[in-house]
From TrEMBL:
The gene is clpS. One of its GO terms (molecular function) is peptidase activity. This is ATP-dependent Clp protease adapter protein ClpS. PANTHER family: ATP-DEPENDENT CLP PROTEASE ADAPTER PROTEIN CLPS, ATP-DEPENDENT CLP PROTEASE ADAPTER PROTEIN CLPS1, CHLOROPLASTIC. Involved in the modulation of the specificity of the ClpAP-mediated ATP-dependent protein degradation. Binds to the N-terminal domain of the chaperone ClpA. It comes from Ruegeria meonggei.
Length: 113
């Protein structure tokens, strides 16, 4: 009786399954964070912007006034960094509040690198 001999090329070893990927390092990827930005415009009253920052971003009056002035002078400022869901909620709250008061205030979010 002939005994089968595996040839090097057809031996079913552990390396030949292309669907198996070796985990080279542990998965430690955190979810991305999002910056919430406030944009300057020529019409929204300064006191309204200060109120928005106090109401939706938990700032003191002094903090809110300082950030409002930064936006007024520089055109834009980051007012907070949040998870995607919280950032979307903040942007929605600010945009809705500004629209209800008929101010053109713009609030956006962008992914933090
Ligand atoms: N530039 C506005 C004014 O002079 C004030 C302002 C500040 C508006 C910040 C928007 O995000 C803003 N009344």
């Amino acid at each position: 009786m002939l005994e089968h001999q595996w040839m090097m090329s057809d031996k079913p070893d552990d390396d030949e399954d292309a669907s198996v990927l070796v985990q080279t390092r542990p998965k430690t990827k955190r979810p991305p964070l999002y910056k919430v930005l406030l944009l300057n415009d020529d019409y929204t009253p300064m006191e309204f912007v200060v109120h928005v920052l106090e109401r939706f971003f938990g700032m003191t009056h002094a903090e809110a006034f300082e950030i409002m002035l930064t936006v007024h002078k520089k055109g834009v400022a980051v007012v907070g960094v949040f998870s995607h869901e919280i950032a979307e909620t903040k942007v929605g709250q600010v945009m809705d509040f500004a629209r209800r008061h008929q101010h053109p205030l713009q609030c956006t979010m962008e992914r933090e690198e």
